[in-house]
Amino acid sequence: MHPSSERHTMSEHVMQLSDSTFDEQIGSASGAVVVDFWAEWCGPCKQIAPILDEIALENPGLTVAKLNIDDNFEVTRRYGVMSIPSLIVFKDGVEVDRIVGAKPKGALVESLSKYL
Amino acid sequence: MTEHRNVLILGSGPAGLTAAVYTARAQLEPLVLEGEPSSTSDQPGGQLMLTTEVENFPGFPTGVTGPELMASMREQALRFGAELVTAKASAVDFSARPFKIFVGDGEPAYTADAVIVATGARSLMLGLDGEDRLLGYGVSTCATCDGFFFRGQEIAVVGGGDSALEEAMFLTRFASTVHLIVRRDQLRASKIMQDRALSNEKITVHWNTQVAAIHGDEKLASLTLLDTVTGEERGLSATGLFVAIGHVPNTSIFEGQLSLHENGYIAMGEGSRTSVEGVFACGDVQDHVYRQAITSAGSGCMAAIDAERFLESTGH
User: In this predicted structure, what is the pLDDT of residue A21?
Assistant: First the structure.
């Protein structure tokens, strides 16, 4: 691990989104953004949260973001999310890929490799 | 590089973590391959990670959620020095001691003097066309994850056991109607769960009924139901489908290594012994009868004690 990262909590590398900021933050991001649609009460979401932190830390070119579906149902509904965790990949503000369900780190990295 | 351990535990449900607590307290420095994230029950913590309230685990008079219970067991195992690794064994070689455990390709990741198998069981799916394609788009393996998305909608739960009824009850918090699809004319579930489910106004029971087909392009739209007595088919509008029709043991990596019953469960000798001396099994991977968190934990304790005595007898 990079020495400087020890001073930060890893989640600082993950962008927090909300209904009101979503379009601006996703639209203005350079490169691919992977958004984790999650909720506090979802066990599998908690399992992949530390993996996404690691992926964010290890891949500075990829923006990793989170959207709490409980608090932000407008965006959740707009993208027709019906299962969490759902990871939606955006490029230039447009959905280009979607991964539904918790997966091991290796599988997530492989699915995201073309955006890294 | 291959690492050697006294005891290697495969699985981290109540059986695996109880075995971890006991072997750790016996100074055997166990390593637990806890599994990998997934939205099915084949994940660290096991089937309880997908359940809500657990009301029958002794010591919790007001209940405890499945994930909370597993977090406590995990913490307890760590407290006594068990090491947990987020990985799954891809193959084992039990033909000679020390036993070899592989994680991915290449050299074995571990060798171990004793192995405790606690890989559990996972939910059966219906095996119908479209089921995989619509997974996450109406078809769900995790009611606690996905119930939220079915607010005010009509959904179906398939099965007549305790798990099916627990899911159906949980889903009534969100859905307008929960159609319970039951193959026979009675339920397999415990009396208390039957009473609760049958008196719940939001649950409609379809007796002698099976799901014959699943329909929907981008998301689930409807089901074709089959009356198992008359053979007649009928349609049912449903935007959600939750399946709880039974379990299969996670034993594919043990084929040819351990004696298995025809149904895939591990064939047991005395106590927690398997067909290979030094390999022990506990929890749902060897139990298709009781399948409770408490029996699983109890059998994990048995496996730990048996493993400890085995290691003592071989000069540890």
Answer: 95
Exposure string of B211-225, with b = 16+ CB inside 10 Å and e = fewer, is beebbbeeebebbeb
Q: List, in order, residues 6 or more apart from A8 with CB less than 8 Å away.
A: none
Residue B120 Rama label (left phi>0; alpha psi -120 to 50; beta): left
- pLDDT computed for residue A11 by the predictor: 63
At residue B312, φ and ψ (nearest 5 deg) are: -60, -45
In the predicted model, what is the mean pLDDT of residues A45-70? 94
Radius of gyration of chain B (CA): 21
The helix/strand/coil state of B232 is coil
From CA B204, how far away is CA B156, in angstroms rounded? 9
Q: What is the pLDDT of residue A5?
A: 35
Distance from the Cα of residue B310 to its chain's centroid? 28
Catalytic residue among B42, B113, B146, B306: B146
Number of CB pairs, chain A paired with chain B, less than 8 A apart: 73
CA distances from B306 to B183, B229, B279, B281 (A): 41, 49, 10, 10
Nearest to A104 among B37, B142, B145 (CB): B37
| Annotation marks residue A45 as catalytic | yes
Token couple for A85: 């965790």
Catalytic annotation present for A42: yes
Q: Can you give the pTM of this predicted structure?
A: 0.87
Asked whether the beta carbons of residue A45 and residue B36 sit closer than 8 angstroms, the reply is no
At residue B74 the predicted structure's pLDDT band, cuts being 50, 70 and 90, is: very high
